[in-house]
Amino acid sequence: MYLIEIYKSVQGESSFAGLPCIFVRLAGCNLRCSWCDSEYTFTGGYKMAPEQVEAAVAALAPVRLVEFTGGEPMLQAGELVPLMRQMLTSGYELLLETSGERPLGEVPPQVHKIVDVKCPGSGEAAGSFRIENIAALTRNDEVKFVISDRADYEFAREFIREHELDEKAGAVLLSPAWKKNSLPERTTANCALDPKTLVEWMLADELPARLSLQIHKYIWEPQVKGV
Ligand code: SF4
Hints:
This protein is an alpha/beta fold. The protein has helices at about 50-60, 75-90, 150-165, 165-170, 195-205, 215-220; strands at about 1-10, 20-25, 45, 65-70, 95-100, 110-115, 140-145, 170-175, 210.
């Protein structure tokens, strides 16, 4: 497997936000979202055997919540899925952050999938989400939309309603996009869309969704990596 980093922090952007969590960041991504804050994952990475990954996670004990992220971790599904099965057997609680572009049907149902459906502002909305992945969702999972503007919001709203995502997943998350050239300060001025505006739209539409802020960008300065 090719990895970028393994580190301990707090989970930043799901209903697990704020919990101590070990992040396993895999190398490589097949998308190029306009607001991506993980471009350093696109190339490089170091090779580790899956058992070495589990040993590196165990060395960060006693935290038992582990998130596989990237990049797009499911590009390495051949090694990642068996590793997730093994780590579930070892008693870890697992999160998988994925774009939903790769098939998710083989992911063990105990893993909490956090599936990011790309909106038009990402530049990757057209065809990036594999629609059959909706059938792989369980109440254990969360679906996330990163919102840059009103067009993104309306895309997310219609997608949530059309696919009844609130019935199929445990949570539906709307997260304001982060500006590409953000200020060094920990402030909502760095959001491409003011969270207050997003909340007003959600309330006006009675949307069955949850506002999600990237809390690590308010705990640490936005440019800090590996937190
Ligand atoms: S899928 Fe994630 S890692 Fe890949 S380009 Fe989009 S935001 Fe970046």
